Amino acid sequence: MLSDKKDFIALNKTGLNIIALGAIDKREVRDTNGSERMIHSLESVNYLKVNKGNFVLFSCADEDRVIAIEQEFEKLNQSSGEETSYEAIYSIKLHEITLRELLLFQSLYVCKTQSDIVQLVEDQPTPTVFYKSFLEFDGANMASILSFDSRSMNHLLDDTNNEHFTDEFPIFYRNKILKGKDKYYYRSAIDRALRCNQVRAVSLIIKYIVRYQNNYVSSYLFMKNFPLLLEKAIQVHELLASDVFSFKFDYDEWPSSHTNKEKALRPYNDSIFNIRKHYRTVFPEEEFRSLEELKDAEEEGGAVAIDTSKVYKIKYSVNILPGIGEHIVDQDPSNGGEKTAYNTDVNFMGLLNESEELEIYDTTTIQELIEFKWERYARTHHVVGCFMHILYICTLVVYINIVYINNAGTEDEKRIYTFLLAVGILYPALYDWSQMYRSGPAEYFSDAWNYTDLLYIWSSIGNIVAQNLSGPFALISKLLMIIIIMLALVKTFFFLRIFDALSPIVTMLTNVIYDLRIFLGFYTILIVLFSLLLGILGIGNKNIPGGFKDTYGEAEEYPGSEYANVGLFVGNLLSTLRMSMGDFGFDAAILLDPAENIIYWFVWLLIVVITCIIFLNFIIAEASASYEKVSEKLEAYILSEKASLI
Asked: If 70 and its partner were Cys, which of 17, 86, 215, 619 is the partner (CB 3.0–4.6 Å)?
């Protein structure tokens, strides 16, 4: 042992070997021939660890040099008791670089354009050299380094090269990149491609990982950048459907069979490498005790007899997706055992809800994540909010029936009702204000729905004041009451989404209306422009000379008098809308002169044919198509809505 550098020297028949055990990253040494050699320490590859508790094993049997990441655990041996064992996580094979390969890499580095790089890559007779990992690249390979170029990745990861791919040694893992003297940063090929906005390269890498690196170790490549994948609308359905975010295990310490066949979701707030000893921590309930424990308890008379005639195989898995969004570690070893919040700036559920890739909701990992978070955190909260909303609506119904419809109740009784209205709006007001305080005004007002909530709250508060000061029949009181009822309708549909029986109806209605927004916009344009034609002809207009003014000039009742307070312009809009619905009135048309009357019937026919017969039926057909589309993906839409509520 060389004490100054902490190098370990091994002497055998093949010669003298030096293994660097110190913290020095790498340094030059000279062999017996005086040739310069680079020696790397074992600690220099610590970045390859998935978890800080992992171990690094370097093996160099024969010509194969392999860096293996392993996890230590205690295994029970019946003869010797507990013994230390190691579980392999993943391995990287290191290659000796040849002169030809070195010249190729030098040529790549001196290329002036990406097209030159692509041409050089495609000119190689075999792409094997690009998949090899070298210590000269600090353990990386050229496939990872070239991830900044989609065309190169398209060639290297093409299916025609699958004979060179293997699931034994991964190509994509975290790389160590020199930042300055003795300073490094760590980035994967996916991070590099995202920084260069190479969406195609990212998709190709994901496709490769799903096929050849389909295990939980690959999930650590996405823990920081997965939100960015969703924001860039990169397809992640296959990734979520794979085993990348699902850690499946079968440990001796966990029961392999049980009489309980129900699916159970439980939280686990520690490293997956420590889960071996935590069965009773995850499942503390008596019903989940192992069969051996249940039988022992039954023999001692401390448990109910169990039926072991039907025993079912248990499958265990850990969903790794919660670690992407905001989460809390109760006892964080990296923070002195203190409770620590991570990814506080990542709203993972919000990103899922905003994603247009509905196929992600067909994956088990997403379904389990939403189901768990919904049942554990969101459902009770929204049920309480719904209960308070129902109480407020019931109070409104009683108040409107007594005060507005029957005009009954004394002044004191009316004050009691307004007090109940104030109590009913107290819960949503306190919730929204506390939400604004926690998230900050900027983030709070970035959500358009919060404006609706504030309008609902302040309209309710203003209504209580107006009811007591101006009286219920004042215009301001009626106007505020109408606004509250309309917003209460929106809030009611919001709360109906939390019930499994009602959620499909609300979801379909919401999505169908959203899909029709373009067609309803065109329909509005038609109504406005066609109404101008009626204004030009002077239908029902007492302001211009003609038969209508001569007949109804001073009369209070006349065709179209229902529009007297809103104005003739709005009246023409409403008349055109009624025509498009099949509601016709011709009393004013007979008072036009013959030429204008002929033009009127031409305009009427045009309005009816285009708006009523063609466009309105077209909207109905589009609504039916939208309904069918939503019905096919109804479960996905419902899960998306739940994600927005969490």
From this structure: 86
